[in-house]
Amino acid sequence: MAGKRSRKAAVVRDNFPALLADVKGRIQAAQTRAVLAVNAELVRLYWDIGRIIDQRQQQEGWGAAVIPRLAAALKNELPELKGFSERNIDLMIQFYREYPEPAAIVPSVVAQLPAPPISQPAVAKSSAAEKVQPAVAKTPESTFWALPWAHHVILMQKVKDLPTRRWYMEQTLARGWSRNVLAAQIDAQAHTRQGKAVSNFAAVLPAPQSDLAQQTLKDPYIFDFLTLAEPFQERELETQLVRHLEKFLLELGQGFAFVGRQYRLTVGDDDFYIDLLFYHLRLRAFVVIDLKTGKFKPEYAGKLNFYCNAVNQQLRHPDDAPTIGLILCQWHDRLQAEYSFAGIDKPIGISTYELTRALPPAVQSALPTVEQIEAELGATVQRSEHAAPPTAKKPGRKKKGGGVSG
């Protein structure tokens, strides 16, 4: 009898971690669904209030004065109510006017790709309160409502083009961007860089994997969080990227898990060292990054092909997709890059990186050039030399006898 009880206790101990994980997962999933449901109802409410006020203004000729009056009345009637300030009510009206038909916001194919089953490594995560839970298998309209109100406000304020705004909306839900991450991605013009790397993915990978791999890479990458001055060495670039790993992972995008720096591989009698090695959770593939300063050279592709072969042989699991190579350089000739891929059957991409974020054209045109600044400084110096005031005499001090001493 005692033996049976001990065996049962052992079974309970063995199965308990799995039970705990299962229950915990169900609780967290229910919490996520509850948060998304509450958020969707709040966004619907704000849109509906914006619609009501806009229609009253159109039908009854109400002016803008009704907004502060409504905000004050709501505060008196419902003092515990939050989110109905004068500014927020203005935003509700703008929200309705910008999206009078929310069902027309149709997500693109990229956004409908399933989200990765494993979340981003903790080093690249934002606080849970700000993160957007990835939206999977949602209808176009429910996807629109799932985006938090603060994210909608950022999009209305920062992105005026509707297709571009829709792209950021989709990426936020697919990748779980927080408000701060969304704002940073907009400032960095992420929509113009996503999927722009030169690669041979379409030729060497099957269609679903090649499309996803292409969309995973950017060109250029913006490393404006680094403090490097030209000229710098590749090892300096590598050291600073690892030192700022969280920001580096954020710029790389969701799904990159850091494996190692100067990762050693032994082939034959020699050791070789990969600059940066990652594993991409969504692609289910290792990603080898080779850092270069200056312009791309065709021989770089052969070296990276060697690294990809070595990783495939030594690290790749049978269930993993083929290892992907990425060369990061400061600039490249596109035709040379494409010729370099000829005869290579490993997926390789080439992207550039920038250490400073380019200013928008409107801001660039408003700023003076270096020549203009130098000319203005020279003219200022000349004017100051010609208009130098005469040396003033020190005020004299009267003597007791009434004279003035110098």
Secondary structure blueprint with pairings:
Layout: H1 2-60, H2 66-77, H3 86-98, H4 140-146, H5 149-158, H6 162-175, H7 179-187, H8 190-193, E1 198-199, H9 201-204, H10 207-216, E2 221-222, H11 234-243, H12 245-252, E3 256-267, E4 270-280, E5 285-291, H13 299-314, E6 324-329, H14 334-340, E7 348-354, H15 361-366, H16 370-386, E8 397-398, E9 404-405
Parallel strand pairs: 2-7, 5-6, 6-7
Antiparallel strand pairs: 1-7, 3-4, 4-5, 8-9
Helix pairs in contact: 1-3, 5-7, 11-12
Could you say which overall geometry the principal axes of the C-alpha atoms support?
globular
Rounded radius of gyration (Å): 30 Å
> How is the main sheet built?
7 strands, mixed
Strand fraction: 5-15%
Terminus-to-terminus distance: 119 Å
Give the averaged pLDDT, no decimals. 77
Please give the oligomerization state of what you see.
single chain
Question: What is shown here, in short?
Answer:
This protein is of the alpha/beta class and 406 residues long.
Walkthrough of the structure:
Strands 1, 2, 3, 4, 5, 6 and 7 form a seven-stranded mixed β-sheet that branches. Strands 8-9 form a two-stranded antiparallel ribbon. Helices cover 51% and strands 13% of the residues. The chain is α/β, with parallel strands linked by helices and 406 residues long. Helix 1 (2-60) crosses helix 3, helix 5 packs parallel to helix 7 (179-187) and helix 11 (234-243) packs across helix 12. It has helices at residues 2-60, 66-77, 86-98, 140-146, 149-158, 162-175, 179-187, 190-193, 201-204, 207-216, 234-243, 245-252, 299-314, 334-340, 361-366, 370-386, and strands spanning 198-199, 221-222, 256-267, 270-280, 285-291, 324-329, 348-354, 397-398, 404-405. It folds into two domains: 10-191, no CATH class; 198-354, Trna Endonuclease, Chain: A, domain 1. It has 16 helices and nine strands. The longest helix is centred in the N-terminal third of the chain and has 59 residues, at 2-60.
